[in-house]
Amino acid sequence: MSIHEQLIRIFEDQPQQFLSGEELSTKLNCSRTAIWKHIERLRQEGYEFEAVSRKGYRLTSKPEKLDVQAIQNRLETKVLGRTMFYYDEVDSTQIVARERIAQGAEEGTLVVAELQTAGRGRLGRKWHSPKGKGLWMSLVLKPRIPLHFTPQLTLLIAVALCRSLRQSTGLPIGIKWPNDLLIEGKKISGILLESSAEDENLHYVVAGIGIGVNLTQEDYPDDELRAKATSLAIESGKKWDRTEILCQFLKELELVYDLYHEQGFGPIKLLWEALSVSLHRTITCHTPRGQAVGYAVGIDDSGALSVRLPDGSMTLWYSGDIELSPATHDSL
Amino acid sequence: MSIHEQLIRIFEDQPQQFLSGEELSTKLNCSRTAIWKHIERLRQEGYEFEAVSRKGYRLTSKPEKLDVQAIQNRLETKVLGRTMFYYDEVDSTQIVARERIAQGAEEGTLVVAELQTAGRGRLGRKWHSPKGKGLWMSLVLKPRIPLHFTPQLTLLIAVALCRSLRQSTGLPIGIKWPNDLLIEGKKISGILLESSAEDENLHYVVAGIGIGVNLTQEDYPDDELRAKATSLAIESGKKWDRTEILCQFLKELELVYDLYHEQGFGPIKLLWEALSVSLHRTITCHTPRGQAVGYAVGIDDSGALSVRLPDGSMTLWYSGDIELSPATHDSL
């Protein structure tokens, strides 16, 4: 057993007890500085301690862990999440999911990790995913659609996630084109879709989904992120059961996904437009090649944003980062 | 040096000479059966021997090999093929190209092999690619287009290949939707596009291209393939310079690819329709879910085939294998 694990064991065996640094360093045969470093690492992993001078440290809370069996018992889906790989820590659930696909993973396979050390968001950005505080996952889908309908899946997943989180928490969550979920302008969740195809045949999609469930202000590494991102706990003032949030999302996604296979993009488009915070307002689109301003009118069947430019002409935006102007319902 | 290589050396050192099996088995210190097996293997690799009883074997022709330096000297492109990886033998140039991309290969990188041991065609089919007789290659492209325009690239490459082969050989080559090249109903070339994307952003495309250049009837393993496939040599009655064919193709592709980036799919669509043998006739489409018959009218901007069904309604076919009916210009 490592010093790290021994330390956890000692604290867990004596709940509510203060243990001094000296006592611990004697027990574990290491320096007090080493003990202090281990405590800091445990804090990063989600353990919480009360530290009182001359008394020492007292364990006040342990990181919550997902229980695969409890999830399977609670799950109401036929396919999605029925095969599940759970990790304490991975570099990125997307990488693990792609490896699982190479080994034959089927539709619905879910990879969940308590901590991602190299989580990625859209456009190669780093995605902050601390231990036990959110849902960091990748879902394998193999939809029977031609390649060029793939962008519809991004919108479909955003719709299902938005609907399920609203149902679970009652919070006023909206979709920012194409696939961020926001509360009052702050990001609560991100979706990233990696696809692989041969000619017109989509082989698979790996949907990376991150949900900030129980993060507190202290869980964000800097003010910049704190200003842009939030969590269900911060917005509601209470902690949420991640198992419940996950199972509710998978249930809703399976419903919407089945609807899509039966009736096509039509109903998904209506749902997306109803939940969107990007429409009927002036927006700025940032792309690697520059930026443009326009008034967002709707989306088309390819998932592109239909935009009226300042000169009155209509155009389609296929990708990019959009910024919402504060005023709504203005028109260019 | 292996027995195989020693045998090649001995034959090459004595051109026009008959060498008996006994002589060879003594020189190489192996059985006459082993010599016979090595000769058979050399034949499969493209060496040709005259065998006369009591006299032995005489090397009459060696497999032609591509010369990377000669190709680079002859090439008139700026980007395509300027970085080139040449292999005597690989499993599949597609696999090698994907590995090269993981190591940072840029747009235009070309992987060429004299022989593929596990060459693949569309829909996972085996692709027959014997040594030194064709052009078996994979080209890395990183076009600046949204994901859902990817199918247009398949048509673009078919257009460039068809045009360049017509220019090089004068043969009446046409395009069968979506991306097979035919002469008189027999396949002369196949194209396979593997794509990888993140959300709407296409990361890369690997275009697998096989051209039957100098295959003879004997190079096809069975009558079934002989009935369906042909080569430039079989159709024209003469051998072709593979370097010339390759350089002409890359030059034409770069032209068409640049045109596409400047003017979009419009001009490519017109070129494709002009070269197509699939339009204005009744066709049968075979998909994993069954088959359908219709009259092919044109293609749309997504590369889908626009088809009039027997009941008069119009539909779009996005993928599948089509079979051309013998009669042309009939209408349902």
From TrEMBL, chains A, B:
Please give the family membership noted in the entry.
Belongs to the biotin--protein ligase family.
Q: What class of enzyme is it?
A: ligase
- Tell me its EC number(s), please: 6.3.4.15
HAMAP family assigned: Bifunct_BirA (MF_00978)
What this protein is reported to do is described as: Acts both as a biotin--[acetyl-CoA-carboxylase] ligase and a repressor.
What positions does the domain BPL/LPL catalytic occupy? 69-261
Q: Which UniProt keywords apply?
A: ATP-binding, Biotin, DNA-binding, Ligase, Nucleotide-binding, Repressor, Transcription, Transcription regulation
Native species: Paenibacillus vulneris
Gene Ontology molecular function, alphabetical: biotin--[biotin carboxyl-carrier protein] ligase activity
Is the keyword Calcium assigned to this protein? no
Protein name per Swiss-Prot or TrEMBL: Bifunctional ligase/repressor BirA
